[in-house]
């Protein structure tokens, strides 16, 4: 007797575990991942925005996030790169961007999948980042309270996303946020959260 095996096709992944979207028709503006020099993410983005025509590269940025640090007994928020050594390029023509990058000395490489068919960030991830970041591309920390075991976010980008927040670490002031459906290319992001009150 032969038992049929069902294979579940997993969503493709970019570097850092971010989910890929599908290839899109030319002319559709999407976010693509760039590999850049670590600790030179911002400088590389600024350079590319000067060198590459805006009809090819609409925007280029490094996503950052706030993180709580404790030094000398005092807590403070610091901003760090969310993905060290990576940046995001917004373009509707990744092939033209690839050619432009090859002609610069900016040390930026378009991350690809499936040969030279560059894969954009998944729409769900792109939408979540766009909604959660501020105008400077920073994922800010949130403030919350826990009342009767239920998390209520009172301030910050996680407002309204309580159902996706898990593993709240009040001591380290951080939590994991599930973005999208894991079977459809979801991912988790570590976010800063301050929960001073728990009842």
Number of domains: 2
- What's the Cα radius of gyration? 19 Å
Taking the sheet with the most strands, its summary is: 5 strands, mixed
Q: Which bin fits the share of residues in helices? A: 10-25%
| Widest beta sheet: strand line-up | 9-8-12-11-10
CATH architecture of the largest domain: 2-Layer Sandwich
Overall mean pLDDT score? 87
> Can you tell me the CATH superfamily of the largest domain?
NusG, N-terminal domain
Q: Report low-confidence residues grouped into runs of 5 or more.
A: 1-11
By helix and strand content, what is the structural category?
A: alpha+beta
**Beta-strand share of residues:** 35-45%
Order of helices and strands: EHEEEEHEHEEEEEE
Shape: elongated
CATH class value of the largest domain: Alpha Beta
For the secondary structure, the number of strands is 12
The CATH topology annotation of the largest domain reads as Alpha-Beta Plaits
Distance between the termini: 58 Å
Query: With helices defined by DSSP (H or I, 4 residues minimum), what is the helix count?
Result: 3
Descriptive tags:
elongated, Alpha-Beta Plaits, NGN_dom_sf, alpha+beta, 3 helices, NusG-like N-terminal domain-containing protein, 199 residues
Layout of helices and strands, plus pairs?
Blueprint: E1 30-36, H1 41-51, E2 59-61, E3 64-71, E4 74-81, E5 86-91, H2 94-102, E6 108-110, H3 123-132, E7 138-139, E8 142-147, E9 150-155, E10 165-169, E11 174-179, E12 187-198
Parallel strand pairs: 3-7, 8-12
Antiparallel strand pairs: 1-5, 1-6, 2-5, 3-4, 8-9, 10-11, 11-12
InterPro entries: NGN_dom_sf
Protein name: NusG-like N-terminal domain-containing protein
């Amino acid at each position: 007797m032969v038992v049929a095996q069902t294979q579940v096709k997993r969503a493709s992944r970019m570097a850092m575990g971010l989910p890929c979207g599908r290839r899109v028709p030319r002319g559709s503006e999407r976010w693509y991942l760039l590999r850049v020099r670590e600790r030179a993410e911002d400088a590389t983005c600024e350079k590319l925005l000067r060198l590459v025509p805006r009809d090819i590269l609409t925007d280029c940025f490094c996503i950052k996030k706030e993180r709580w640090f404790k030094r000398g007994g005092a807590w403070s928020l610091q901003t760090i790169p969310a993905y060290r050594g990576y940046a995001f390029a917004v373009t509707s023509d990744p092939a033209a961007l690839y050619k432009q990058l090859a002609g610069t000395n900016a040390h930026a490489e378009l991350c690809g999948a499936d040969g030279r068919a560059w894969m954009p960030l998944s729409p769900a991830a792109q939408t979540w980042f766009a909604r959660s970041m501020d105008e400077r591309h920073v994922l800010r920390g949130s403030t919350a309270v826990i009342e009767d075991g239920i998390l209520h976010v009172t301030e910050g980008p996680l407002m309204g996303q309580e159902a996706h927040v898990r593993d709240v670490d009040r001591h380290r002031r951080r939590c994991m946020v599930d973005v999208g459906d894991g079977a459809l290319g979801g991912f988790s992001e570590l976010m800063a959260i301050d929960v001073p009150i728990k009842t």
